[in-house]
Amino acid sequence: MILTIVILVVAFSLLVFVHELGHFVVAKLAGAKVEEFGFGFPPRVYGVKRGETIYSINALPFGGFVRIMGESGEEAQNPESFASKPIWARALVIAAGVTMNVFLAFVLYTGGHIVGLPTIIESDSQAAQARDVHVQIIEVVPNSPASQAGIQMGDVIDRIAIPPTWIEPWLAGIKIDSVDDVKNIIDQNKGHEIHVEILRGSQHLSISVTPRENPPAGEGALGIGMIRSGIISYPWYAAVWQGAQTTFYNLGALAQGFWQLISGIFTTGKLSADIAGPVGVAHLVYQVSNLGFIYVLQFVAFLSLNLAIINVIPFPALDGGRLLFIVIEAIKGSPVNKKFENAAHIVGFALLILLTIVITIRDVAKLF
Fold it and tell me: 77-86 pLDDT, tens per residue?
């Protein structure tokens, strides 16, 4: 639990800090006065002024913030004010946070490809290039035999032992080499108990479970989804290209997922996908941390892309909402009324906090 909290704090701090660093650097380059660049959130623990900027360390270690003169529209006549900058410069400053989150994901994925990232193995030729090839569980259906037996997402199926008949001794576990191996054993033993040898991080577990004879459609007899995966690494020059491919593939998949989520709300009035708040993410971090460092690295990169996609949504209080007001200004040829814009951001922020509270309550309820 302590390790989970540490990973969660470090991960969120890194993601938000990098995001704010993007705003900070581009604001400086645009000639806007950055009044404070803080690590963590107030109250302030320590601060030192260098030039025009206070660099502070704050008590709540979740990311950081940048305070730019004129970001709320004040002092528009001051050449150092954010409000005095041309539309293109303000748009770049706002977009820099999202850009840095995408860049962070690229760096993490590139480093991961150098060390070796878990990869889905789809052919024997891929398997020949990989190490530690195994069958891994990527989904556990709630209330299924697997879920009730304690099998978790991320578990590796090493062997499966089948109980003896009245004259047979216990069989040594059957070594699992492919997803088909598991499916065949399950199909042949529906309604009968089997013993699954599981690798979970450094743990070696033996779990008894009985495949269902008549499972619900689409769930399977055990209620698990599986892939064959292995660790594939690349030399640094190839890892850069692989990192870019992984980043933009996942970014596109996330964007598509968010689009389906949002469009589903308007077309059906329901969430078409599950979303997680801080508690849900903490639970995922706990599961991922049991699998090893490289999985944590992948998860942080994925969270960074999530943060980028969320922030680009054109909703008040988010970067996308601020960009929307700049686009409106460009179209109409004059700034949007600042009182209205600031009020919209305040309301948007309040709604985001309310949504976070609702999701957190739901996440907590799922754990009990």
Answer: 888 999 889 9
